[in-house]
Amino acid sequence: MDIRENYKNPLKDIDDWEENLKERYPEHNISKKEKEEFRNYIDSDRAKTVREFYRLNHINQTYDFVSKKETEFLKFNKKEMSLWEAVDFLNTLVDDSDPDIDLDQLQHLLQTSEAIRADGHPDWFVLTGFLHDIGKVLCLFGEPQWAVVGDTFPVGCKFSDKIVYPDFFAENPDNSNPKYNTKYGVYSPNCGLKNVKMSWGHDEYLYQILKDYLPEPALYIIRYHSFYAQHREDAYTHLMDSKDIEMFEWVKKFNPYDLYTKAPVKPDVKALKPYYKALVKKYLPELLKF
Ligand SMILES: [Fe+2]
Ligand SMILES: [Fe+2]
C-alpha cells in the first residue's frame, strides 16, 4: 500500500472501527484479563491505525466538506440497484485482515437482524438491522474510510469533548472559525436534529436513500446509529427537539444488536433468504438509487 493510499485508508479492515467501539463500550463490566487484553490492544498496530483513522476523520470532516459530499452523493447518480444487488455489491468489499476471524458484511447484517428477530421485535426493526450498513458501499465508490465509517457528530457547531479522540479536532479548520466553534454555531437551542448537519458517512447516505420507505424509528436508527456522542454520551441534547428525544430510545435499543451480536452459529444465508426477500419487498421498491 503506498503512502497516499495509506493516507486515505489507514484501517486494514473498515470493521476495525467497530472493534474499537466494543473496547470503548464493553458489553459487560470487563474482567482483569480483558483489561489486560485491552492494554495490549492499545499498544497494537491495529489501535494505531484506528487512531490515525480518527485523526483523518476529525481534521477533514468540516461543514464545507459535508456540504460538498451532499451535493455529490445526494444526486443519486452512481448506481441503480435492488437491495439484494446492493448487499452483494457491499460484500465485494474485501479487507486484507484475517478472513477467519472476521465476518463478511452480509454476516454482520444478518446476525444483527436475526438477533432482533429472535427478540420478537416488529418486522421493520428486523429489516433495519438487515440493511443498516448498506451505506458502506460508499467505500466501493472510492470514498476514503474516514468519510464512510467512524463515529458521527454535528458539524457547524463546537465539537464536543465527549467525541472519541477530541484532541484531533484542534486541526479541523472549523474549530478556529467563530461561525462554527460556539456551543450552537449555526444552530439554535433545541432546533431538532433534522436541522443539524452531521459528519458525512454511511449513516446519512443510507438515510437519504431510504427516507421515503421506512417508518420513522427505522430512519432514526439508520441515520444516527454511529452518533455515539449522543446515544451513549448525551453530548448534544441541547440541539435535540422532543421528537428526537423520543426517537433516540429506538437508536439506543438498536445499538447493542449492532455492537455485540456474534452468533455461535453463522446464519444460513440460503435458508433465510425467502424471509428477507418478503420483508424487503414489503417495504422497499424494486430498485434503489445510489
Ligand atoms: Fe454502521
Ligand atoms: Fe453495523
Write a brief structural summary.
It is built from 13 helices and 2 strands.
Structure description:
By secondary structure, the protein is mainly α. The chain has one domain. It has 13 helices and two strands. A two-stranded antiparallel sheet has the order 1-2. The two termini are 28 Å apart. The mean pLDDT is 91. The structure holds fe (ii) ion (2 copies). Residues 132-133, 202, 225-226 line the site of one fe (ii) ion.
| Largest pleated sheet | 2 strands, antiparallel
Number of strands: 2
Oligomer: single chain
Strand content: under 5%
Pattern of helices and strands: HHHHHEHHHHHHHHE
Radius of gyration: 19 Å
Shape: globular
Fraction in helix: 40-55%
What class would the helix/strand composition place it in? mainly alpha
The unique ligands bound to this protein are:
fe (ii) ion
Low-confidence stretches: none
Mean pLDDT: 91
Number of helices: 13
Strand order of the largest sheet: 1-2
Report the span from N to C terminus: 28 Å
Total separate domains = 1
